[in-house]
Amino acid sequence: MSAIASTEPSGTPARLRIDFVSDVVCPWCVIGLRSLEQALARLQGRIEAEIHFQPFELNPQLGAEGEDIAEHLHRKYGATPEQAARNRENIRLRGEGLGFVFRMDKRDRIYNTFDAHRLLHWAGIEGRQLALQHALFRAYFTNGENVSDRDVLVRVATEAGLPADRARDILASDTYAADVRAQERFFTGNGIQAVPAVIVNERHLISGGQPPEVFESALKQIAISR
Questions:
Q1: Of 25, 39, 51, 68, which residue is 20 to 30 A from 4 by alpha carbon distance?
Q2: Three-class SS of residue 183?
Q3: Where do the structural domains in the chain lie, given as residue ranges?
């Protein structure tokens, strides 16, 4: 959860709950989160927001070994190598503009993310969810690491300020599995079929990796009408 302090002219902050539905291996989720954070920084002094990360698995069927990303994109979306290359460059440039480094040369596989979502659920309880989400994005998109590997996940959890022993215990068990499945069912059952999906005050949906200006405008309108 991330809190951004703010006040309206009256001295009372406009308080917003933001549910950020995303997957760890979704590049547009990185772009969406960075854009949202920039929008909130611009609105500092006007809006106070709590961000809660909610699970969504793009590829729940994948095994621990993952899948070659080029084969995956062709199988799932029919993308040609040329189309995939253009999309990667677009993502890289969008990330660069938002201060995030996408190292496309290091990312050659896509992975199952269920364990990562279990750790994110735990991190929410511990107040370290935002830190862990950022650490997972860096691990996968900047460093090209396997975010289904439990040793990698334990190390990333420690980078986010979480205890390694507890992270290891969670991953070795089915702790929080039912919670994550329940959250996934809730959001897909309520129409979320693609991510990022940014839900404000459990009513207003902002879809996709929008620019900061779009988030800023939408949040201002929602704050006024709440």
A1: 25
A2: helix
A3: 14-225
Q: According to the 3-state scheme, what is the secondary structure of 63-102?
A: CCCCEEHHHHHHHHHCCCHHHHHHHHHHHHHHHHHCCCCC
Assess whether the previous peptide bond of 196 is cis (omega < 30° from 0). Answer: yes
- Predicted confidence at residue 3, as pLDDT, reads 34
- pLDDT digits over 43-52, tens only? 999 999 999 9
- Per DSSP, the chain holds a count of helices (H) and strands (E) of 9, 6
CA distances from 223 to 32, 100, 108 (A): 19, 28, 41
Q: In the prediction, which pLDDT does 125 show?
A: 98
CA angle 78, 79, 83 (to 5 degrees): 160
pLDDT tens digits for range 143-201? 999 999 999 999 999 999 999 999 999 999 999 999 999 999 999 999 999 999 999 99
pTM, whole model, 2 decimals? Answer: 0.92
Q: For residue 184, give Cα distances in angstroms to 22, 121, 177, 200.
A: 10, 12, 11, 17
Cα separation of 200 and 226, whole Å? 10
**Residue 114 and residue 23: Cα distance in Å, rounded?**
9
Q: What are phi and psi of 56, to 5 degrees?
A: -150, 130
DSSP label at 105?
A: G
Query: At how many degrees (to 10) do helices 114-126 and 177-189 cross?
Result: 100
Helix then strand then coil, in percent of the chain rounded to 5, is: 50, 15, 35
CATH of 14-225, one of 1.10.10.10, 3.40.50.2300, 3.40.30.10, 3.40.50.300: 3.40.30.10
